[in-house]
Amino acid sequence: MSNACAIRQARLDELPRLTEIELDAFATLAEALGVIREAHALPHDLLRGSLDAGLLLVAADDGDCPVGFLAVEEIEGTLYVIELDVCPDWQRRGVGRRLMSAAIEMAQQRRLSALTLTTDRYVPFNAPFYASLGFVLPSVEAVPHFLKKKLDHKIAVGMDPERRVAMVLTLKR
What we know:
The chain has helices at about 15-35, 45-50, 95-110, 125-130, 145-155; strands at about 5-10, 55-60, 65-75, 80-85, 115-120, 165-170. By secondary structure, it is α+β, with helices and mostly antiparallel strands. A hairpin with a 2-residue loop joins strand 3 and strand 4 (about 80-85). The protein is globular and about 45 Å long.
């Protein structure tokens, strides 16, 4: 299996495949968290919103089949990472890093101030991965209001408040 993949905009007919990727990737996360929880995927209307805004990227293999995706939305001058998932067979091969690099480039082209997200503090392919890209854990006072609301929502739907964190990558202008 080649490590080669192309990063490109997603297509409407690929939304079902992105759901498959998300559900498959969830198993890796659940194992890392040591939780048994039913997998769920983003609603297609949320993915469609990112797609329509030009903010839904895929990593496609040599056959142009998506093996990973990144959905973001523009909020208050930042790109907020809604979801980043990579097929288990393609994990640990730089696909997530390439998708995030494309998102950083997209945010710079749009002249946005930062990328933002919420993630697990301890899972190596979560906060430590994002930290390797330059994301930081802002002080409580420095977390943008919209990001605090996103974090609070994640906790309200069952995420562990000791593990869930907000992260920000400030972009140079």
